Amino acid sequence: MASFVPSAVSGHYPGWRGRFPSSHKRRSEPECSVKELIRMNPLHLFFLGFVPPFLGAIGSIVTALLLHNDEISNYNWQCGRARLPSLSRIINLPMERIFWQITFLFHIPLRAVEIAVGFFRYGRLRSVNCNWPRLYSLCRHFYLWLGSLELIFLIALSVVGEREFISYHVIFFYAFGAFAIGFFLTNVICHSQSLYYLNPYGRISYHFKIVVTILYVISVPVLFGAFVLYWRKCITIMYDVFAVAEYIDVFLTIAYHCCAFFDIRYKVIFSWCKFKRGGLFEMFFVEEKREKLRIQKKRTKLADIFLHSSSDDYYALRLLYNLPVGFGIALLIYHLAWYRINFADSILINPFWKDFVKWLMIVSSALSYTLNPLVRASLGCALFASLGSTGQGLLSVFVVENLNKGPIENIIQNFNISTMITVCHLQLQARITKSRMELQAGPIEALFEKNFGKVTTIGNKVVHTLKSLLQPFDDDVEEDSEEDSHLAAIIDTAQKIADRQLLTEGEDPSVGTMDRAAKPAWKRLKSQLGRAIVRRFERRCKYIFASSVESCHKRLQQSQSLCYDAIPWPLDSFACSRINALSLCQAKKVGEMSVKFCELGKSTDSGKEEHEMLFTPELDGQMYGLQNVSKQIERQLQLNLHFQAVEQPEIERGYSTSQLHNELEHDVKILQVFLGSFSLVLDFVVVLLTYLLFKNCVQTTLCYLNDIEFQNFFTTPYFWRIDSKRNEMGKVFLGKLRKPEKKHNKVISPYGLPHSEERKKMVSSSVRLSVLVFVVIIVIVVDHFFFKMLQIVVIHGKTIRSQQGGASLNIVVNGSGAVAELLRKVLQFEYAENITKHLDNLHCLSQPSAPNWTFNTWYLMVPLPVMFLLQVFLNFIVQRFVLFFVLGLMFPRRAKARIIHLYNKMLFGRVNSDKLSAAKKNENEGQMSKDGTD
C-alpha cells in the first residue's frame, strides 16, 4: 500500500506507519463541528478486549481447581460420580463467578464495537471480484444479527447461573453455541469476498478462521451427544467428555476472536472525536446538501422530506419515524401470515419460547425495515401489490380459509345432525316393532319369561345333583387314563428290582414260580372298556405291594449312602455293605404275594368263584350305561328357547343400529381430519405464497433500481415538465408525440387505459377469480339448501306412536306328589295386564345449524367484489400505483433518472427521425429538380 506525500492543497499527511492518510484535526460545517481528541492504537484495543476474557477463563478454572476442588470435582451427580467439573459449575461458585463476570462483561462493549466496525467495513470493502454479491449482502447482515445475539446469550449465560435457573442456563448455553457457529460462518464468507482477504495478514486470518470453525463445528455434536448420553443413558464417563468439550469450545471461541488482531492491524484507525451539533432540530430536520436545493425550488420542509428527498437523506429522522412504522407493518404481517411458521407454537414447548420467537421475528423485521431502504421498498411494494393480481393467490387462500371456517364447517355440523336423526329414527322404528310384538304375544311371553326361568333353574339343579353322584366314577369308566400309566410304571419298577434280585441269586427271572390261569379274568370280557376296568382293579391291587418295594429300596439306598459318608475307610466297606436293598427288601417275595392276591384268574385260589362272579360278562353294558348317563341327562334337560326366540333378535337389531351409528360417526371424523389436514396445507400455501410475494417484490425493486428500461414507458408529468422547460429554453423538444413514436416505444400515459400486457393479466386474473367465485357460490348454496332440507325434516319428521292393549291368563295345576309339585312350579300362572306405551322421536330432532350470513357476507361476499375490482378491473392501476408512488417516493432520484432516460431516448429518436426525413426530402427534391431539368 503506497504512502502519502504531504500536500499543502490537500492537507493530507502520512498516516500511521505510512499506510493511511491522517484524518482532519478540525473540520467545521454549518450543521456540526468535529474535533479529534484521542487516537488509539488498534492493537491496544485488541489486547484490551482479548486479554480480560482469556485471563477470566483461565483464572476461573485454575482458582476453582486450587481452592474449591472438593466442591467441583468427584461430586456425586444423578448418574454417578463426575470427576471433571463443567464450566457452568465452575462459574456457579461465588468467587469464580465474580471473576468470570467482571472479565467477560468488561469486553462486551469492545466486542460490540468490533461487530459494528466489521458490518460497516464489510459494506464498503466488498471485492470487485465478488462471486456471490447477494449472498455476501445477506451474510453481512447475518454477521451483524448473529454476532449481536451471540453477545446477548453470552451475557445471559454469564448472569443467569446454574443455581438460579438451570434449564434457562442450559438453553442460553446452546443458543450461544448455535449463534456462534452462524457468526463464524458468515464472518468467513464475508472475509473471503472482501478486501480483508488481501495481505498483510488477510489470508493467514482467513485460513485460521476456517480451521477454528471446523474444529468448533466438530466439537458441538460431541458436546451435545455426551450431554445426552450422560443424562439419558447414565454413561458416567460422558460427563467428563462433556466437560472437556466445553473447555475446548470456550478456548476455540476466544481463539476465533483473536483473528481480529490480523483484521485490524495496519487496516483500522480508532479515534475519539468530539461532535458539536446545532441541536436536535438541526440533527433531524437539517440536511445541508438539501437546504440549498429546497430554498432554490421553494419547497416546504415537509414536502422536501417526504416527497423529494432520497432514502439516504435525513437519515436520523428516517430512523425515528421508520421504526414505529416498521414495527406496525411487521406486527401486521406476523398476524396475517408469519404466525404460521412459529415453530415454538406448540403445547410441547414452553410458552416463553413462542413469545420469544414471535417478538424476535417482529423486532428483526422492524429493524430491517428501519435500516435498509431495499427492505422498506419491498415491504411497501408487498403491501400494495398484494391487493392486485400479484397477491391474488394469497387473497384466494384467505377466502378459502374463511370458506372452510364458515359454510364447510356448517355443512359438516349439519351432516352430523342428520346422521343422529337417521340413527334415532331407525332406533324408534325398532322400538315400535318390539312393542307391537309384545302386544301381540300377550301373556305368552310373560309366561315364558317367568316360568321357563324356573324350569331352567330346576333342570340345572337336577343335572348338577346327578353329575355330583356320578362324578367319582367318571375316571373308572374311561378306557385309558393317566392313573393307568402311573400304576404301570410303579409296578414295572418293582418287577425290575425283583429281576435284579433273582440275577444276584443265580436264578432265571423268565421262569415263574407261580401257576397262572390259562385265561385271566380280564380276557373273558369282550369290550375294551370292560377289560380296561378289570385290569385297572388288578393294577391298583398290585400297586400296594409295588409301592412298598420301591419305598424300601429308596430308603435303604439313602441309608447306605449316609453310612459311607459317616464311616471312614476301610471300615465303611465292611459295615455299609450289609445294608443291601436287593436282599433286605425281598422284592421277589413281595412280587409273589401280589400275584397271589391280585390276579383274579388264579386256578388254585379258593376265592375264584367270588372273583369271577364279581366281573360277569354283563359288565360291558353296565359300564357303557354308566359312562353315558351324565351326558344324556345334560342333553335331555337343556333349554334354549328363550335365547333363540327373544334375546338373539334383540342383539341383532342393536348391533345393526349401533354399527350404522358408528360408521356414520367414523365418516364424519374422517371428514373432520381431512379438513384439519387441509387447513395445515393452507397454512403451508400461505407461507409459500407470502414468500413468493416478497420475492417478486424484491425482484421488482431490484429491477427498478438496476434496469433503467424496466417498465419505463410512461409519460409522467415530470416527462412533460422536462419537455416544457426545454421549450422555454429554446432547445429541441418533443411536443406532441407522433403515432409511430408511440407505437415503436410503446409509450402510454400513466392515466391511460391498460396496454396489452396489462390486459393479459386482467384476463388471467378474471379466469382464476371466476373459478374461486364458482366454488364459493356452490358451497354457500349447498350449505343453504342442506340447512333448509334438514329444517323441513325436523318440522315434518316428528313421529308420535301410542299403543294400548290388554291380556289375561290363569293356569292352575291340582294334585299332590313330586311331579305335581314340579308342574305347579312350572306351569301355574296368573296374568292380567293392560299395556299403554307412548313412543316419539322429539328428542332426536335437533335443530340444524343455520348459515352465518353475517360471516358469509363480510368474509366471502364482500372480498370477492373487492378482488374483482382491484385484481381484475383496476389491476393496472394498482401496479402503476406501486411503480410511481411506492417505488417513486422511496427512490425519487432513480424515478427522475428513469424519466430522463425515457425522454432522452424519445428525443434522440425524434431528432434522428427528423434528420432522416429531411435527408429523404432533400433527396426527393433533388431528384425532382434533376428530372425537371432533363
TrEMBL record:
It comes from the Eukaryota. Residues 45-265 form the CWH43-like N-terminal domain. This is Uncharacterized protein. The lineage of its organism: Eukaryota, Metazoa, Ecdysozoa, Nematoda, Chromadorea. The keyword Transmembrane helix applies. It is found in: Membrane. The chain crosses the membrane at residues 45-67, 98-122, 142-160, 166-189, 210-231, 237-262, 319-336, 670-694, 769-787, 868-891. Residues 710-903 form the Dendritic cell-specific transmembrane protein-like domain. Its main location: membrane. It holds the Pfam family DC_STAMP. Keywords: Membrane, Transmembrane, Transmembrane helix. InterPro entries: CSR-E3_Ligase_Protein, CWH43_N, DC_STAMP-like. GO terms for cellular component: membrane. It is a multi-pass membrane protein. The keyword Membrane applies.
